[in-house]
Write a structure and sequence with these properties.
Chain B: InterPro entries: CheY-like_superfamily, OmpR/PhoB-type_DNA-bd, Sig_transdc_resp-reg_C-effctor, Sig_transdc_resp-reg_receiver, WalR-like, WH-like_DNA-bd_sf. The complex is a heterodimer. Chain A is α+β, with helices and mostly antiparallel strands. Helix content of chain A is 51%, strand content 17%. In chain A, a hairpin with a 2-residue loop joins strand 9 and strand 10. The relative contact order of chain B is 0.10. Classes of the chains: A alpha+beta, B alpha/beta. The interface between A and B is medium-sized, with 32 and 30 residues.
């Protein structure tokens, strides 16, 4: 029955770091970033190439046109300087002419010196050329057309400033869109992961409920993709419930079978006890031994049956209004002890709504425990507290070591201290049953130090029903 | 101990338990008749004419509940059910079938004897609550002396425990009696009796007395406290 728990890693996050949801969100955001970056760069490059070459073509055609006008003028004998006024000039830029060694220009911003040397060399060599260049913090495109017949050259200088500005705005827009896309990607990632993980929330709720003992809980298959998970989960719970029920039934069946012989035993002992006088001293001694152990045996069977009902989830609460102080006094009497019941908080009664039989078992078991291990209970204290009632059984024994304060409520727990062994009074289930009875009431039980350095104090708190 | 020997019919299929019970009860001064099955018990009933019946619920053949119902058809004899479990529906089912009280296995002989004594006391003792009282302008008449209750002029068939319960309520007419008080006075329990005994008996009483048992006019519930008989 002893199995070591093994954990199956459920992902890198299992060892710390970001959760699944955060990782999906980040992945979506990064994906969106990469995608929008690629798209933006591509868009920017295409648009830029397109715009610049468009501007270059416009510059070239205008310059050729100017060259034709100049040629016509020169043919007609007009001087280059006079033709200049007839030439078309770009909005920003200008036209530069050379005839023989003389240079003419119609712009203050651009002139002979503005033209890049490489362009001038090309044109001087008789080749029409186009070149982009920077001057005065601005981009320009210059087109040069040679007219060797007239020993002239026509240059058109056009500003690319407008194009650059357009591209700048485009760049900003693309960056803004990329940013929005990243945010949207993260949002979609978060939403999608939430949607995907929501059924897992159902699984965890179901698992928690099952751990809490509700073995009849199963998952419903709402999503086809989750069907395998749901099926194996439900299968696991079936197997678990089956096993628990089998174990519980076994304990219950065994105890049940023991009832009949026990009834014969206890009834026959009753007959013998009624006829003690007819027995010899040795016979009486033997009868006392027999009676004590049959009682213990009977108690064990009752406790086993009780706890198997808890295990089978068949324990039901039968709440009644009672005075806890009165109930405690009856329980103390029932346990065969003379222990004062103290009502704290300056009152005489402690009204409570509890299962009388179970609460009586709780008190009797705690008193029995104190008798077996704590030299007998010294007081039973009851009090109404915020939101419920509190009951304490105090003894003056050796106390419970801190490291055992949890285990002491385990089934069949035998403490380490020497005095805790061998008394062999109870079934070993007394405190475990206390826990179960109290838990059924929705309450808590724990042990702390008694009065001063010595003793133990078992505290039961039950909330108002 | 018992001055007049009361007769007990013990119905139990386990021979050894039956023998042990006989020994214990005979030592208490009772005259014990045994039956190993429900069929045998029903044959024996008229012959033995017991004062108390001890009835195991788990019987081969016809079960304890059925035996209980059969006995109730012809007799108001006190019946103690012997059940295996205290907190299952067995107890309520047994009480609904007409049992007066129950003990759970494994029981102690003394406990069983105490239950029987309480039932016999209930039947024999005629105590101060002997005055006849009427309710609802004579619609309901309880006369302990005559040992009968009349509803609309006709006698109502009650078991001895039901009648005793009615007498307690009638004696304290208009006053609320808690379950504990009723358990103590009618069944002889000291505090730790089972409240379901009272609840089921009240239900049985209502079914026989009330014009409309779903809306009781005489035996009313006082929430959280107990029951009272409305004058």
């Amino acid at each position: 029955m002893t199995t070591t728990a093994r954990s199956v890693p459920s992902g890198p996050a299992a060892s710390g770091g970001l959760g699944l949801r955060a990782r999906v969100t980040v992945a979506f955001a990064l994906g969106a970033l990469a995608l929008s970056a690629v798209l933006s760069v591509a868009t920017y490059t295409v648009v830029r190439t397109q715009l610049v070459s468009q501007q270059e073509r416009a510059a070239a055609s205008q310059t050729y046109l100017n060259a034709r006008v100049l040629r016509d003028g020169l043919r007609g004998g007009t001087g280059a300087g006079s033709v200049l006024t007839d030439l078309q000039t770009p909005d920003r830029g200008g036209v530069v002419l050379r005839q023989a060694d003389r240079w003419f220009g119609n712009s203050v911003i651009v002139g002979r010196d503005t033209l890049p040397a490489a362009l001038r060399d090309d044109v001087a060599a008789g080749v029409a050329a186009t070149q982009r260049f920077e001057a005065g913090g601005e981009s320009w495109v210059a087109v040069g057309v040679p007219m060797p017949r007239f020993q002239a050259e026509v240059f058109g200088v056009f500003s690319l400033g407008e194009v650059e500005r357009t591209l700048e705005i485009l760049g900003y827009s693309l960056a803004a869109v990329a940013l929005l896309t990243v945010v949207a990607g993260a949002g979609v990632g978060r939403w999608a992961s939430g949607r995907v993980l929501r059924p897992l929330g159902g699984v965890s709720e179901a698992a928690a409920a099952i751990a809490g003992g509700q073995l009849d809980i199963r998952l419903g298959a709402r999503d086809r993709d989750l069907a395998p998970l749901v099926a194996s989960f439900n299968h696991m719970v079936d197997a678990l419930a089956d096993r628990i029920n089998r174990d519980a039934r076994f304990a219950s069946d065994v105890s049940h079978e023991l009832r009949s012989p026990l009834t014969t035993l206890s009834t026959s002992i009753g007959v013998l006890e009624g006829r003690r006088g007819e027995l010899s001293a040795r016979g009486r001694e033997a009868l006392d031994l027999l009676a004590a152990d049959v009682r213990r045996f009977q108690r064990m069977v009752e406790d086993l049956l009780e706890i198997s009902r808890f295990d089978a989830g068949m324990a039901e609460l039968d709440l009644q209004e009672v005075d806890l102080a009165e109930l405690a006094r009856h329980a103390v009497r029932g346990a065969g002890e003379v222990v004062p019941v103290v009502v704290r908080g300056g009152r005489s009664t402690v009204p409570a709504e509890v299962d009388k039989r179970r609460m009586e078992r709780v008190i009797v078991n705690l008193i029995d425990n104190a008798r077996a291990y704590g030299g007998g209970a010294t007081t039973v204290e009851v009090a109404a507290v915020e939101g419920g009632v509190r009951l304490e059984v105090v003894d003056h024994g050796p106390g419970v070591p801190i490291e055992e304060r949890r285990q002491i409520f385990d089934r069949f727990f035998r403490g380490s201290a020497a005095g805790r062994r061998g008394a062999g009074q109870g079934s070993g289930l007394g405190l475990a049953l206390v826990v179960e009875h109290v838990r059924l009431h929705g309450g808590r039980v724990w042990v702390e130090d008694g009065n001063g350095a010595r003793g133990a104090r078992f505290v039961v708190e039950v909330p108002r029903a | 101990m018992q001055a007049v020997s009361a007769r007990i019919l013990a119905i139990e299929d386990d021979e050894r338990i039956r023998s042990a019970m006989r020994l214990a009860l005979e030592d208490e001064g009772y005259e014990v008749h045994e039956a190993a099955s429900g069929e045998q018990a029903l044959q024996l009933m008229p012959v033995a004419d017991p004062d108390v019946v001890l009835l195991d619920v788990m019987l081969p053949g016809i079960d304890g509940f059925e035996v209980c119902r059969s006995i109730r058809r012809s007799s108001d004899v006190p019946i103690v059910m012997v059940t295996a479990k205290a907190d299952t529906h067995d107890v309520v089912a047994g009480l609904e079938a007409g049992a007066d009280d129950y003990v759970t296995k494994p029981f102690v002989a003394k406990e069983l004897a105490a239950r029987i004594r309480a039932l016999l006391r209930r039947v024999r003792v005629t105590d101060p609550l002997s005055q006849t009282s009427t309710f609802g302008d004579g619609d309901l008449v309880v006369s302990p002396e005559a040992g009968e209750a009349l509803r609309a002029g006709a006698p109502v068939r009650l078991t001895k425990t039901e009648f005793r319960l009615l007498c307690e309520l009638a004696h304290n007419a208009g006053k609320v009696l808690s379950r504990e008080q009723l358990l103590d006075r009618v069944w002889g329990y000291d505090y730790f009796g089972d409240g379901r005994l009272v609840d089921v008996h009240v239900r049985r009483l209502r079914a026989k007395l009330e014009p409309n048992p779903a809306e009781p006019r005489y035996v009313v519930t006082v929430r959280g406290i107990g029951y009272k008989l409305q004058p």
